[in-house]
Write the structure tokens for this entry.
Amino acid sequence: MTNILVSDAETKTKNLLMQCLSTAGFEVSITENGLVNVQLAHEKFSTITESKKSNTQESIFPSIPRLREVFEFIEVNYHQSIRLKEVAQAVGYSSAYLTDLVRRLTGKTVNNWIIERRIAAASTLLLETNESVYEIALKVGYQNINHFYCQFRNYYKNTPRAWREAQRCQAA
């Protein structure tokens, strides 16, 4: 457990901080002397992640205990601009070691897993919403629409728009 001293903070600011930390998967409580206790709730976090996955779609990640934290980090952050370096820092490994470990255990790189998660989210949004391809690309972590198109085409052998239309025709 870690204590954070929030000095001279308004109640509104302290509550916002606690809400952000809770959303990020931490157990948060205020002590009598004004300290904010923060603890990463691994079991609670895993349960939340699992329930979110079961409500939307099956997890794309394999069940490998040594890589659980890696895949949880990707799951929570894929919609942001994350790279190998951030994943490695989050799980306490060097980039080189993490690359080797993930490739040995899964046959894919960390970047492949990030891309695969983004493409899975994009395909779900393409099927379940009428949002534009551009909006979906931004939502799943791409800042460059052309990069999204290239990666989507590599994965599905079709453009996002054409893939959406084909899938909807098959469902009808």
